[in-house]
Amino acid sequence: MSSDGRGPVARTPALQARDVVAGYGEVNILHGVSINVQEREMVAVIGPNGAGKSTLLKAVFGLLPLRGGSVFLKGVEATGEQPDKMVRRGLGYVPQIDNVFSSLTIQENLEMGAFVRRNGVHERLDEVYALFPVLASRKGDNAGKLSGGQRQMLALARALMLDPVVLLLDEPSAGLSPKMVGAIFERIAAINEAGTAILLVEQNAREALSVCQRAYVLAMGTNRLEGEARGLLDNAEVGRLYLGA
Amino acid sequence: MATQAATQATLRDRWRDYERAARGFAGTTALWVLIGGLFLWAAVDERQLFVIGIIVGSILALGALGLTLIYGVLKFGNFAHGDTMMLGAYLAFFFLTGLVKETRRDTNIGINVSDLPGAGDRIGDLSFGYGFLLALVLAAVVVAAFSVALDRLVYRPLRRRKSGIVIFAAASIGIAFCIRSVLLMIWGPEPRTYVSGIVPKNDYPLDISLKTNEVFTFLVALGLTALVYFLLFRTKLGKAMRAYADNPDLSLVSGINTDRIVTWTWVIGGALMAIAGVLLGLQANLKPELGFQLLLPLFAAAILGGLGKPQGAFIGALVVGVSQETAVAFGPVLSDILEVLTLGLWSPDVHISAGYKPGVAFIILILILLVRPRGLFGGIT
Amino acid sequence: MRFERVATPAALFLVAFFVTLLPFERSGGDVGATISFLTVFLTTVAIYAVFVLALNVQWGYTGVFNFGVAAFFMVGAYTAAIFTKPPSDTEFVQYVGGFGNFFSPEFLDGGEWLRFLVGTTAAGLASGFLAFLLSIPTLRLREDYLAIATIGIAEVLRRVAIEERGLVNGTNGLVGIPRPLGGWFDPGDYKYVLLGIAVAVMVLVFVAVERGIRSPWGRVLRGLKEDEVLVAASGKNVFAFKMQGFVLGAFIMGIGGAIFGYQLGSVAPDVFDHFFGTFLFWAMLIIGGSGNNWGALAGTFFVWGIWTISLQLNGYDMPGAIQSRIFFIRDFLSGAMLVLALLLRPQGLIPEERRVSLWLDRRMRREKPPPPPSPAAVEAEAGN
Fold this sequence. Notes:
The structure holds three protein chains of three kinds. By secondary structure, chain A is of the alpha/beta class. In chain A, the strands form two sheets. A six-stranded mixed sheet of chain A has the order 6-7-8-3-9-10, sandwiched between helices. In chain A, strands 2-1-4-5 form a four-stranded antiparallel sheet, covered by helices on one side. In chain A, strand 9 and strand 10 form a beta hairpin. In chain A, helix 3 packs parallel to helix 6 and helix 6 packs parallel to helix 7. The radius of gyration of chain A is 17 Å and the shape is globular. Chain B is built from 13 helices and four strands. The longest helix of chain B is centred in the first third of the chain and has 44 residues. In chain B, a hairpin with a 3-residue loop joins strand 3 and strand 4. In chain B, helix 3 crosses helix 10. By secondary structure, chain B is mainly α. Chain B has two domains: about 230 residues, no CATH class; about 90 residues, no CATH class. Chain B is about 70% helix and about 5% strand. Chain B has a two-stranded antiparallel sheet. Chain B has a two-stranded antiparallel sheet with strand order 3-4. Chain C is built from 16 helices and no strands. Chains in contact: A-B, A-C, B-C. Chains A and B meet through helix 2 and helix 3 of A and helix 7 and helix 8 of B.
């Protein structure tokens, strides 16, 4: 639930992927996956290793060619668009690794995030720094000197500079200490409350399900389950599938 | 108990970080001290050679600037750099004089920049007029366009294929030979100059005499270095170039048009190569084989300064220049050092002849790669 | 696929055809002259093939990007000259060595073969030693740094040869290098003898390298080119192996240099410029197909064939504008050929084979290929 009491708006989804088929080389990883994200919603995609979660994000964002299916952004077809077009149309993406410019300062990282933005860069910088006070205090520092958690925050902040409608996050908690994981998810929730819809791919299913409203469970490249996050947490089948409960 | 061990571990890590930083710092400091010592000795003991070294250095600086930019942004050691510089130099020659080589002698194509009124009138104490400057600008434009075209035809397909640096190096060497052959075809192997006639020297304090051309070259090198630095660190394009150098995939993900970044890099790099070549031609006779011979000192200068660091290219080039020119005076110094080290037993008559100048650049290159590959200003490895 | 299998043999055949046809036509149908010409051609091909095979060991197998082949070429040629020539008898020609007479004892009829054996071996050892010395500062460098370092070495050595006049007679170089087995044959027949010697050396090198590469030592070497980290993780001293590959390649280059000197009869610093001393061999290796020895041979034959053909074409009447520039045009085409090969056919005339052992190949060919995996099986794999 967002802070103003309004739940996710059930209209044309902000992001919709239908029957996506994608893969690497001769092998297909995804065999017709469908997901949708409403405006201001926070949706998780969980599943065992190799299920195709990261592949799904890359295919939606245009980093991988779509071998089947379609993608719709704000109701408009966006199948096969290149990443730089997707970014301009309101889709943000945070990769799992190598997600900051290590040799640039924090400020410069954010400026690069806003590269295609024509106006309002300064205002947006203020807004983003407000969401991440840790970064604001170290604007001139090189990104390479940041700790793992701070780097992840910067990665998120960079993607937010263009005020995306939907933000795609690829395993944001990967490689972080347990304390940092909590901090990151807390920030992600704050981003969602500020109005950005989030599609979150996570290995750490428990954490993901505890902050998201809805979730999909993927396995072997197909949809397995879908539903309210709380419900899935208790669901025995999910536990069996891989939570290792 | 566990937390005690943890704190000890973090302390150890931190100590290791300090140690590494200190060693790096010590290494760079040692280098700077060495350079400072060399410059001081040269300025005092071998002033004329020192001045020549600075001049040679400023010519090298222009070349190293372009090389370090291309290396820094595109991660690619361009072995065609020297020959592309010569291309720019010969194009300026062509625009200025309109001469190409027929079977036995030169023919004038007809129109050339010198035909413009007053184009040949010398500006102040310089040996050239605005015609030369016009020819330089034209050459820079052509070389910039050429570099972009080359990238589209050769380097971009290789990039798309994710070829290794060896393939790029080999391709650039092939292109270097092509350029050199074309220069030989059109202008022949004889030496070429922009202007004939004596160029006067002026006297400066401290017993230094310089041609105004040389001062001009130094100022241009300094100015362009500052410009490139400003570009990379204060402009949006420059920051995007650094971002691309840092992480091309993330640049794409951020919406940066990476193709355009690459194009601009070649435009600027190409222009720099042309200017470097032309100013070289101003001081020395042009011969097509100069291009390849320049590779060694240019790479040495760029690597010494730190790849991708414009200020590094400038300083590195000056160091290479001064070292090269004062090397001939090293002989007796080396003898003295050997005598001291062997307690007077061995003081051979060491004579370093001028032909060994490339050897100096080579030694600098090897030393830097062994001691501090990231160079003076910490460039990419 | 069809074109693939025909392209390489066709290219080689065309080259062979024109290399034979042109001199035949230009000499007015003189078979003897043509055979003579072809002999010299093939001798040069054999000698250059030795270099390209050595370069393949260094780059194709070990992964050392040596762009200063000219240095090892030069050291080999000069060393052999020093060991086979008698000492200088005038004050205008100065050089060290001149051991030729020492290794020509009468009772062994050594003037015809011993000193050449010694000289060639010494040439290989000298080159190998140079590589050994250079390993320490350069082998740990990244490939493009190694390239510029080796370019520098070649240039510096050339300068040393020029500047230190007492060393190898400066710019004038050494002339009058004797011929192996020269005294046993008529001067007119000698070229065939030299061809025999060159081909014998080439075959020897080829067999040695092929054997070496299939050995356990060779497999480690090949692993280095693929993935150094993996090799290091399996406990092998990466640096030692790299050095061995580098030194072995240099040793072979030294031998090649020796035979080159015997053929040419004289050596001077400008013979070993970057184009003829290094670039040409790289072009031959890349065009022929790096990573395999048959490719090295094919590339040498092809490139030198094209080279020779272009020289032959020079003999025909052509407009003066082209005539005077023929050498530059040829250089341009060499550079362009390399770039085109890298762009259009990077695997070369004979692509690198990916095989671990001959025995496995034969076994696999006898068995039927397994059916393609079902999608379910692939997912099961991916899910784990």
